[in-house]
Amino acid sequence: MKVLVLNAGSSSQKSCLYEIPDHTIPNQTPQPLWEGKVNWTQDRGVAEIEVKTATGQTLQESIYGDSRRAHVAYLLYTLTRGATKVIDQLPEINVVGHRVVHGGQEYRKSVVITEDVKSKISNLSSLAPAHNPAALEGIEAIEQSLGDVTQVAVFDTGFHATLPDAAAIYPGPYEWVEQGIRRYGFHGISHQYCSGRAAQILNRDLASLKLITCHLGNGCSLAAIKKGRSIDTTMGFTPLDGLMMGSRSGAIDPGILIHLLRQSNYSAERLDYVLNKASGLRGISGVSSDLPQVIAAIAQGDYRAQLAWDMYVHRLRSGIGSMLASLEGLDALVFTAGVGEKSPGIRQAACEAFGFLGLKIDPAKNQQQPLDEDIATADSTIRVLVIKTQEDWAIAQQCWQLMQEK
User: Fold this and answer.
1) β-sheet with 383-386: strand ranges across
2) Is 217 known as a binding-site position?
3) Where is it mainly found (predicted)?
């Protein structure tokens, strides 16, 4: 079975093609036959295309025009033409899976995409304005290029559908619950994948484990996972809640928003921009939303960059502490995504706060760019894992499972 995965972001579209045996699914993540990416520049007039295949063939091009659908269609064209050809024709693709950030209360698990599903994903765009519309563009691009091929929506919110009401419901008026205002949580595909991979690495039954997974990228969230189910998470009704992030504020006193609306003549649009695009590491440091650039500024003695680091670590430790309370214990702490996988300093700083629990990180292992490894010392009471998140493979697995049920 050939499974194409599209992972849409606000400024990029990642794609990959997997070949999975029809009657069994591998335990280990296979290498994709083909991987493609479209990056859109800020003026949206230019798309940077990057393609690579399992055999080592590569392609880099810049193409012009404002049509995202056309850019995605061109990316798919490279599957069947030129040096990056891996299949003879597009109809060889059996199913296409899409990462969709917000599924609301309607979608608690992956679904085959219909016109009704597309309509509901569109209706939820106000809750994930940078992501749901991009996913819809990808879905429509596939319809244009592949016709009536089966398409599947895999929701970032789905894994957190198991949150107990006490964790999911906000302490506002009960009418909010009836309006669907609740904690949905995000990065669910990544959290779910990493929990399963952690069980493999530890050679333990997932149902026996208490895990905290730290997805630390430009967006950041934690999940408390017990018996393979999400029981608490830091992101909320939207991906803006929780930890301090690259350019998002994370949790703040809602009274600040009331104050700004009353005293500073902020509009909803300005608040949205400030909280999502001009806060977090970028807002505090004044340097960048990118942690390595903030670290470089710290090395030059930049006070605001140091403050941004200190705040980021403080919020991360506080979040881990709250997840510990939800789990009533911990077997393993998992770091993943760009910062989680690549920043030994953040891992060290986060772990140091929990030495009183007997958690001990091995400094040498931590510095050696570990992936899918345990970096705790032999006598640590809690394991510390660095896992390369494989969202695309997790999406492909869910597509395969749905196709078995058809």
Assistant:
1) 229-233, 220-226, 210-216, 332-336, 383-386, 373-374
2) yes
3) cytoplasm
Instruction: Please check whether residue 222 is in contact with residue 318, taking contact to mean a CB–CB distance below 8 angstroms.
Output: no
d(CA 170, CA 151): 34
Would you say 44 is a known binding-site residue? no
Q: Give me the torsion for CA of 104, 336, 306, 240, rounded to 10°.
A: 0
User: Of the listed 156, 241, 331, 374, which one is catalytic?
Assistant: 156
Domains and CATH numbers, the chain: 2-155 (3.30.420.40), 205-386 (3.30.420.40)
Concerning whether 379 is annotated as a catalytic residue, the answer is: no
Q: Mind listing the pLDDT tens digit of every residue in the chain (406 residues)?
A: 999 999 887 667 889 999 988 788 877 788 899 999 988 765 557 788 899 999 999 998 888 776 777 888 888 889 999 889 899 988 999 999 999 988 888 888 899 999 999 999 998 888 877 788 888 988 988 888 888 899 999 999 999 999 999 999 999 999 999 998 999 999 999 999 999 999 999 999 999 999 999 999 989 999 999 999 999 999 999 889 999 999 999 999 999 999 999 988 899 999 999 999 999 999 999 999 999 999 999 999 999 999 999 999 999 999 999 999 999 999 999 999 999 999 999 999 999 999 999 999 999 999 998 999 999 999 999 999 999 999 999 999 999 988 888 6
> pTM to 2 decimals?
0.91
218 appears as a binding residue in the annotation: yes
14 is in an annotated binding site: yes
